[in-house]
UniProtKB/TrEMBL annotation, chain A:
Subcellular localization(s) per the UniProt record: Cytoplasm
GO function term, MF aspect, one: D-alanyl carrier activity
Pfam families reported for this sequence: PP-binding
GO biological process: cell wall organization; lipoteichoic acid biosynthetic process
Post-translational modification: 4'-phosphopantetheine is transferred from CoA to a specific serine of apo-DCP.
Record's function text: Carrier protein involved in the D-alanylation of lipoteichoic acid (LTA). The loading of thioester-linked D-alanine onto DltC is catalyzed by D-alanine--D-alanyl carrier protein ligase DltA. The DltC-carried D-alanyl group is further transferred to cell membrane phosphatidylglycerol (PG) by forming an ester bond, probably catalyzed by DltD. D-alanylation of LTA plays an important role in modulating the properties of the cell wall in Gram-positive bacteria, influencing the net charge of the cell wall.
Pathway as given in its UniProt record: Cell wall biogenesis; lipoteichoic acid biosynthesis
Swiss-Prot/TrEMBL keywords: Cell wall biogenesis/degradation, Cytoplasm, Phosphopantetheine, Phosphoprotein
Official protein name in the record: D-alanyl carrier protein
Ranges where the Carrier domain occurs: 1-75
Domain of life: Bacteria
GO cellular component terms, semicolon-separated: cytoplasm
UniProtKB/TrEMBL annotation, chain B:
Domain AMP-dependent synthetase/ligase: 8-358
Catalytic activities: holo-[D-alanyl-carrier protein] + D-alanine + ATP = D-alanyl-[D-alanyl-carrier protein] + AMP + diphosphate
Gene, per the UniProt record: dltA
EC numbers on record: 6.2.1.54
This protein's GO CC annotations: cytoplasm
Originating species: Liquorilactobacillus satsumensis DSM 16230 = JCM 12392
Protein name: D-alanine--D-alanyl carrier protein ligase
Amino acid sequence: MKEKVIEILEDLTGSSDLADNLDINLFDEGLLDSMATVQLLLELQSQCGVEVPVSEFERSEWDTPNKIIAKVESM
Amino acid sequence: MNVIQRIDSWAQRDPQRVAYNYLGKENTYLELKNYSDSVAAAITNMDLPDKAPIIVYGGQEFEMIAVFLGIVKTGHAYIPIDSDSPSERLVTINRIAQPVACIAVEELPVELAGLPVVTPAKLKQLFSERVSFSAANQVKGSDVFYIIFTSGTTGVPKGVQISAQNLESFLAWMESDFGIKDESTFLSQPPYSFDLSVMDLYPALTRGGTLSVIPKKVTEDFRQLFSVLPQLKLNVWVSTPSFMDICLLEKSFDEEHYPQLQHFLFCGEELTHKTAQQLLQRFPHAAIYNTYGPTETTVAVTQVQITADLLAKYERLPIGKPKADTKVVVVDENLQEVAAGTAGEILIYGPSVSQGYLNNPAKTKQAFVKFNEQNAYRTGDLGEFDEAGQLLYKGRLDFQVKLHGFRIELEEVDYHLGKVGLVEQAACVPKYGMDHKVSQLVAFVVAKHNEFKNNLELTKAIKEQLATLSMPYMIPQRFVYVDSLPLTTNGKVDRKHLFSEVNH
């Protein structure tokens, strides 16, 4: 699952360095914005089968690759 | 009655009616009239040259629309500049537009040399005073009502001048063709520097409606967005399809939870079949419209209602049929009309076509031409009429793209990239998704020698510098570092080659 999430994130952000920077803040670094977040949630749904309730989406809980991986693995 | 008189008349008919709802802070039509009269009286006292434009700087607060109205009541045109804009853009627009004053609803981030400024403090004081003002010199006919700046190919934005009669033509169509009732509550989501905002602002206010605002900070925080949205009791939805894509993520965004929501109007970018179909499933009884039009022809000029039949017939949705007072023709490179079923450039003429770009005769001459003795606008959009008379959108003739509704000239992005100290040379291209829509801007950069540990750090530094030069929506999402850019045989950057690298 971890590899899959990293793959999705690398594809979305166009950055191939994410696997080595799992604690990087994706929003502060300008790698994700709200439209990219929509894409991320749709990809997680179609590729990982994870349904994220968007009305509970708190950006601070999803702002690094590690946090996203942990979230996905807990769902 | 003209636009201004119609809005003011609601202050008499129903003074306590709510005109503006900003996250629960409500302002009435009476306040709108009083505030705008105060601003108009203050502008009159400034003794400015007749009809010259005035910059309005701020976000989405009520004071913005009161200031717009105050300005047009004195015969001046307003130029909305969003507080999201970098200082550089304010300075550039100030240089191009040569305004005679600036009304700062929010604190200006930079000094505009020699320009009289009404500060937020002064404005607050004005709003606390009650003056009577008779709008004898208000904007009318071919006088310019507002000027909206759009992206320009040389890196210099162009100011599209929209006159009172352009706006009247647009409003008449909004009233006749969409079945929207008086006193409706409209979603007000785009910033005022984006002309999509005109699609909710004046249709709502001239008909006693309420503007329910979702400011940018709320759109970006999904949790807050979906706690605010159900409280707005919206009747009419106006947004880009991209914003709808966010809302459709929420399963409870449907007819059952939003029973008052009966109209949806989309503009600014392509409405995909997928988005339209999903929305119609959620709101089977709502009237959903796709519309199309460039800023230069006042917001939009064609519309089509999205029905199950239409979705079944078209894989890629049409952009509709022109409004009654306007002609849309498809022409070849010699401006000769082509037959239905043949693609060509979309050309628009009629009463909502702008008189041209402010202080830019060269660009005006390129884009505005005489056609059948009338002032026509060459859109640069490729289109084609089908046998049913529906206009189909086929892409662009140049390097303009739409990203989430924002209009961007790729050359302008290149221009700003080139000004970044870390960049030797750069060019950007759009990456398209599966649905004909741009999903990202990708910058190919030849970087100068630098000490950054990795490309992530370099990209962050470049983005930070870009943020001081260009609008946030023009900053590429993706950076690719290369040793050199591919060139065409005549020595220009080969954008097509770069394009094929990101779009397979």
